[in-house]
Amino acid sequence: AGRAAAALRAAAAVRGDMEGQLRYLHVELEYARGAKRKEVLGQIGAIKEGHLSDLRGAFEAYESAFLLDPTDDALRAHYKYVANGLGAQADAAKTMLRVAPSVKDQDARIRIGVDTGELLVAGGDLRRAKASFASALAASAGDTVTLLRAARGLDTIGQAENDPKGRVAALEHIVTRETD
Predict the structure, then answer these.
(1) Which pLDDT belongs to residue 174?
(2) Host H or E run for residue 84
(3) Is the pTM of this model over 0.90?
């Protein structure tokens, strides 16, 4: 049934029938496991987000896919984008905070932490965002771009809180990372 649904979905895609694609993706989802399930959920989210303007449905699909593979950066970016569009930053951040400790790859865990911090800043929770960014910088691992995002996030918080010491520390991280 899963293969038949995939074939029917491909035919619906040729016709440009988004509702049909979505219907067959839901049938595929019933039979999919593991990586295939994440892929199907991502496709459901993309159709709901891009073609049907159903941000709530896209958010739910992306969240389910994120829970299956939190290390997928592109998927997490869509999840963050839709959460920001819905004003559901707190919900997405809560999910990311719950999942991050189970991620084995330290670089991925740092990226998730920085994404969480950005969601918390957007949602107005500066205290928890500051902790997420500081944790990412304290790990002293991770790629330069991610660590720069964390340092810039701390600088933004320092500006908002009128904290010159916090800003100096954040700017030191920025200068150190940008010269590397």
Answers:
(1) 87
(2) helix 73-86
(3) no
